[in-house]
Amino acid sequence: MYDTGKIITGLIVFLCLITFPLWYDAFTGKAATKPEPKIITKEKQCVEATPYMRDSHMKLLIQWRDRVVREKMYSYKGSDGKNYTMSLTKTCLNCHSNKQQFCDQCHNYVGVTPTCWNCHIIPEEKS
Amino acid sequence: MDNSKRTFLKVAGISLLGIGSKPLQKALAVNEEPKILPSPDALTGKRWAMIIDMKKCKEDCQDCLKACHQVHNVPDLGNPKDEVKWIWKEPYEKAFPGDETVYMQEYIDQTLKGSQFITLCNHCDNPPCVRVCPTKATWKREDGIVMMDYHRCIGCRFCMAGCPYGSRSLNWRDPRPFIKEINKEFPTRERGVVEKCNFCSERLAKGLIPACVEACKEKALVFGDLEDANSELRGLLRAHHTIRRKPQLGTMPQIYYIA
What we know:
Chain A is built from five helices and two strands; from the N terminus they run αααββαα. Chain A is mostly helical. Chain A folds into two domains: 1-32; 50-118, no CATH class.
């Protein structure tokens, strides 16, 4: 094999670079912090169960959006049997009034930027 | 092995019956209640329309315009080129071009000629804006309201070219800084989206009449169901000579003017 030294060194450098996140964590002991969304509300239960909301809230919101705007359906029966108005601002943000501490926590962590807030108004943070 | 053939057919028959009963079972089972329903307080009509009595409308009054703009977060960009219009005033000759025939003149109150007419989206029965929209962001609801889904609008402005009344406006820039007082219950729009009067569909869903109608102290604006023969709207149509904007275009506008 020609240029053994160069190739091996190159490979080692490459491996070091690609595994950087792993040993950086191991040395510093600082893994990326998990998002911790905070909810400030009196209500105990969301319109659906928490696990469902956690992974499917975007689907629910899109369904709400389309049904309200395009089919003028405004009322949603939650899993608790109560009727809710299908509205991001009037229903969701009523409880989840702290966007920075709630929505942004996970959205920033997974790197998504929902366009909701270009038009819908963010409530004032109560902290 | 005659017998086994016979048993086989019997078993096969019974099994087939079993399969057939599945849809039957489904049909007999109690249907799950639908989760999504229309608003219980909503005003329902078969064909919403409006009458504007220009004889009652006061020249210097801005109540209806202000109410609409406040409720719907309509920005005031302070320059006619960027203007966003939901409800606005237009002089007679601009609002009703083509109506200047000799015979028509007799029926129109001469004093109204110089006045400013209240204009808004006509919620046409045959809306050209709907026909040209490539994304179905605008459509005619079954109750006649020409609705707009801002989520789907791509800002191509075909509808603005299609609308003969100038009822549609594009947000050339971010409208947020130009809204004096934001109504938190209604979204604003963003740059690159077309907007127009929605006949207060969000208020109708709550059982309220349009904001402009509610705000008019002179009761010059009347909103109602055209299909309901006993409505105030139909009464006014029966009693007065009314005109519509550019009827010659065949869009069948549903805003009537007593003039």
